[in-house]
Amino acid sequence: MSEGVLGMSSKELERAHTVRCVVEKKLRQKEAAERLGITVRQVRRLVQLWKKQGDRGLISRQRGRVSPRRMQAERRTKIEGLLKDRFADFGATFAAEKLAELEKIIVSHETVRRIQIALGLQKPKLRKEKYIHQPRERRSRFGELIQIDGSPHDWFEGRAPYCNLTVFIDDATSRLMALHFSPTETTEAYLVALKRYLLAHGIPLAFYSDRHSIFRVNAVDAVSGDGKTEFNRVTERLKIEQICAHSPQAKGRVERANQTLQDRLIKEMRLKNISSIAEAEAFFPAFIETHNAKFAVPAKDTINAHRPWTGTEKMLDDLLARRETRTLSKALTFRCDGTMYCIKTSGPGTALRGAKVTLFHFLNGAMEVHYKDRVLPCTAFKTYPVPPQTVDEKGLNARVDGCIAKLRPPFLAATFLAQPSVRQACG
User: Fold this and answer.
1) What CA–CA distance (Å, rounded) separates 189 from 207?
2) Residue 398 falls within a domain, yes or no?
3) Which terminus of the chain faces fewer neighbouring Cβ atoms within 10 Å, N or C?
C-alpha cells in the first residue's frame, strides 16, 4: 500500500484514502463516487492512476504551472504605478472603476485588491466576532420609510472647512433622496434637506433617525414645553411619522450609505477639484443620479407611497418655519434674539395691545410676524447683548475651526486644519 505523498492537500489526501478503500474492496465504486462528488467513471480512472503511480498519481497536474490567463508583467507594472501614485487611498472596487473610466484598463476589483495588498496599500480584513443583529426586511414600497442621518467629516480634505453632510435614503430601494452640506448637524440643515426632498419627491410616510436632540427631547426631567423638538413640530404639520432607532445598527442602510459616501463622494470631488460647499451642492444632482443607478434596488411593490405636494413653495416655507409666540406691549413692541421690534400700523393700533403674535423664522433667515390670518409689518430699532449660543458635541468642531480661521490668515488656517493631527483631534 502506498504511503501519502508529502505536500498533498487535504482534498487530495481524502481522495487518496477513498481510492485505497476501493482498491482494498472496503468501498464500492458507486459509494466512493458519492463521497467524492464525482462520477463512477472518474473513480475508475483514479483507481488506475493509483495502481500505476500510487498517491503521487492523484496530485493535480496543474500544480506549479503558470496560468495561461496570468496578467502580463508590463500591464501589472502599469497598474501598480497608478495605484501607488493616483489611487493610493482608493478602495479596490472604486479603483477598478476609475482604472476603467480614466485609464481604459479593464481589471477585476479582486485583482486590484490582491495588488493593493501586495503593495501594502491595503491590509486584509480580519473577521471579528460581533454581536449579531437580526436583519430587517426592507419596506415594500418606495417612500414608506426614509432613513435620515448626519455625517460630520473632512469632506473636502482640507480644501474647505470641516462640515456635515445630511443624508436622506429610502429604505425600500436604498436610493439617495437628498444630500445637503452644512457647517454642523443642526435642525436647519435637516429642514433644508427636507424642503429639497418634498419638492422633488413628495411627502413620505415616515422618517427613521437616531436619538439626537434634533429628533427627540432627551431631558428626562423636562417639566416645561410640549415635549417636542422643532423638527417634530414640522413633521407633525406635514403628517410624517417620526421614528427614532434604538441603535446605529437599526438604521444600518443610512450608516452604510455614509461609509460609501465618505469613500466615493470625497474622491469624486477630489477628481473634479471641488473645493467649496457651493460647488458640491451643484454637483449633487449628477452624483445622486450616478450613485442610484449603481446601488439602488427595485422596490417589491411598484406603488409609490409618497403623497404629492400640491401647495406652493411659500406654503412649504411656512410649514418649515420655526415658530415662536410673543405678546405685544402697549407700544406694540416685542423682543426676539436680543433685538427689539416695533409693529407698524396705519391707525392707532389699540386692538393689538397685549395681542399674542406668532413669529415665523424662515430657513433663509427672514422673519414674519403673524397675527390671526395676516402678516404684520415690523421694524427693528434696538439691540441688546445676548449670551453665547450653546453647542452640542457635534457642533463643537465647527466652532473651534471658526476660531482658528479668525486668528490666522486664510492660507495658514487652511494649512493648519489640513494637518492630520489637527483633523484627528477635531473629530
Assistant:
1) 15
2) no
3) N
**In terms of domains, do 177 and 259 share one?**
yes
Judge if 91 and 205 occupy the same domain.
no
Same domain, 255 and 169: yes
Residues 267 and 152 in one domain: yes
**What does each of the 427 residues of the chain score in pLDDT, given as a tens digit?**
444 565 677 888 888 888 889 898 888 989 889 888 889 998 998 888 888 888 777 777 777 677 778 888 899 999 999 999 999 999 999 999 999 999 999 999 999 999 999 999 988 877 766 666 677 889 999 999 999 999 999 999 989 988 999 999 999 999 999 999 999 899 999 999 999 999 999 999 999 999 988 998 887 666 666 788 999 999 999 999 999 988 888 888 999 999 999 999 999 999 999 999 999 999 999 999 999 999 999 999 999 999 999 999 999 999 999 999 999 998 889 998 888 999 888 776 778 888 999 999 999 989 999 998 889 999 988 887 767 766 666 666 666 766 766 665 554 445 545 554 444 444 4
Task: Check: CB of residue 109 under 8 Å from CB of residue 93.
Answer: yes
Residue 412 forms part of a structural domain: no
Cα 208 to its chain centre, rounded Å, is 14
Domain containing 107 equals 73-119
Q: How far is CA 173 from CA 166, 193, 248, in A?
A: 18, 19, 19
In a domain, 250, yes or no: yes
Interacting residues of 384 by C-beta distance below 8 A, sequence separation 6+? 335, 338, 339, 340
